[in-house]
Design goal:
This protein is mainly alpha-helical. It is about 80% helix and about 0% strand.
Length: about 280
């Protein structure tokens, strides 16, 4: 009998809304997509279409709530493509890069929509203000998303597959290789302490398959921090978008991302480095 539970990367790291809403619905859509012989990448493109449409509709007062519903549905499809990949065994590094890249396209549409809405409300003033916020918000949200994906993907590999992440075995086209290289720039800059942990674990486990002791130790040190990184995913951004449209203050989204969330992000980097330092000292004994 087929498993009727959503196919998580690692259930212990999932957020409440993902457990109760996004993943269960995504699982149902993943099964439908499998029955229709759709590939995970095709579902990803469909997710992008709904995301871009939802983002564009944020530009108009009369379509703000339909726009938000479309963005949420796009996120459900984003869950579906990953579950379909796990269901069919067709998950690839290229697919994961494509998934993240298309997520950026969807958010770019949302940011443009919010900016246009603000300029419609503000009319002849404030255009420079919202454009500055869009640029800063795009940069900070990109950093948040990169670290969110890095720590969750790493934890899912260790906790869900009992293996260290190994992403160099798959050949990438020049375009995807460049995108992935940019992703590594963020990693090396902001997650150097965790990369040092992974390097040491690789030396202790050359095959890439972790010993039970090392896996349990990794879980012990990182189970709480991976939940900390969950704050920088789609759910938080959707809450910020919802607050912005309810208040009819599209600029409020960018203020929340650039201000409070980035302050929390800096604190999260500090906490993670402290945890990594303790973990590294433990592994080195």
């Amino acid at each position: 009998m087929e498993n009727e539970k959503p196919l998580y990367k690692a259930e212990e790291m999932e957020e409440f809304l993902d457990l109760k809403f996004y993943h269960p619905l995504g699982y149902k859509l993943a099964k439908k997509a499998r029955d229709l012989n759709l590939t995970p990448n095709q579902v990803t493109y469909i997710s992008m279409a709904f995301g871009i449409l939802g983002g564009a509709l944020l530009a108009f007062k009369c379509t703000l709530y339909p726009a938000f519903i479309l963005l949420v549905f796009s996120s459900v499809l984003d869950s579906a493509d990953g579950q379909l990949a796990r269901m069919t065994g067709k998950g690839t590094l290229k697919g994961r890069i494509l998934d993240g890249l298309i997520g950026y396209f969807s958010y770019a549409a949302a940011y443009i929509g919010l900016a246009v809405l603000y300029m419609r409300i503000a009319r002849s003033y404030g255009s420079w203000y919202i454009l500055v916020l869009v640029v800063l918000g795009t940069i900070t949200a990109g950093l948040h998303s990169s670290m969110y994906d890095f720590y969750r993907t790493t934890y899912a590999s260790v906790a869900g597959k009992d293996r260290l992440p190994d992403e160099h075995e798959e050949h990438l086209t020049p375009f995807f290789a460049r995108i992935y290289a940019m992703y590594h720039v963020y990693q090396n800059l902001l997650a150097s302490s965790h990369l040092r942990i992974l390097s040491l674990l690789k030396k202790r486990n050359p095959s890439g398959e972790l010993s039970a002791a090392d896996q349990n130790m990794y879980r012990m040190y990182n189970r709480r921090t991976v939940h900390m990184w969950n704050m920088f995913g789609d759910n938080t951004r959707f809450i910020a978008i919802f607050i912005a449209i309810v208040m009819l203050r599209p600029d409020m989204y960018f203020i929340l991302i650039i201000g409070p969330l980035t302050a929390i992000f800096c604190a999260a980097i500090f906490v993670q480095r402290c945890v990594d330092g303790e973990f590294y000292a433990k592994l080195s004994r």
